[in-house]
Amino acid sequence: MSSVASKLPLDVLRIIFTSIRKFNKNPNNDDYTIRRTLHSCILVNRSWCRAAIPLLWRNPFYYFKSGNAKLIDTYISCFGYEEYEYLEEEGLVLHRTSYARPTFDYASMLKRLDYDRFCQSVDV
Q: Is the N or the C terminus of the chain less surrounded, counting Cβ atoms within 10 Å?
């Protein structure tokens, strides 16, 4: 038996998940707590996952202060042939076979890039 919550339309889920941050009145609920809440939402079912993933990936470098080069690996795995070719022309050679294509196009979800935090995440 499935619950009503598991059958909510995708647009409704997005509104609810977006509201988690907007209506957060508790000063003890920091961004880490909100991220954990959204992470829990992606584990419920595919619909909840499709609704919450873009919120987690809109500004991922905000959550990770340093040493998280795996985010960069994830973005590289989203590259198409043209992007790899461009990087090779610029002198950066990536081994294409080492990156499996991800389930989601995380690169298209990026809405905000804080350059300083980006650099910290890869220890530049």
A: N
For residue 124, the one-letter residue type is: V
Query: Per-residue pLDDT tens for 72-106?
Result: 888 888 888 888 889 889 998 777 666 677 889 99
Maximal CA-CA distance, the chain = 56
Structure tokens, 100: 């499996």
Which pLDDT score is estimated for 1? 40
pLDDT at 123 over 70: no
The rounded distance, in Å, linking the Cα atoms of 10 and 3 is: 15
Residues in contact with 66: Cβ distance below 8 Å, sequence separation at least 6, in sequence order = 120, 121, 123
Contact 58, 107 (CB under 8 A): no
The HSE-up count of residue 51 (CA atoms within 13 Å, CB side) is 26
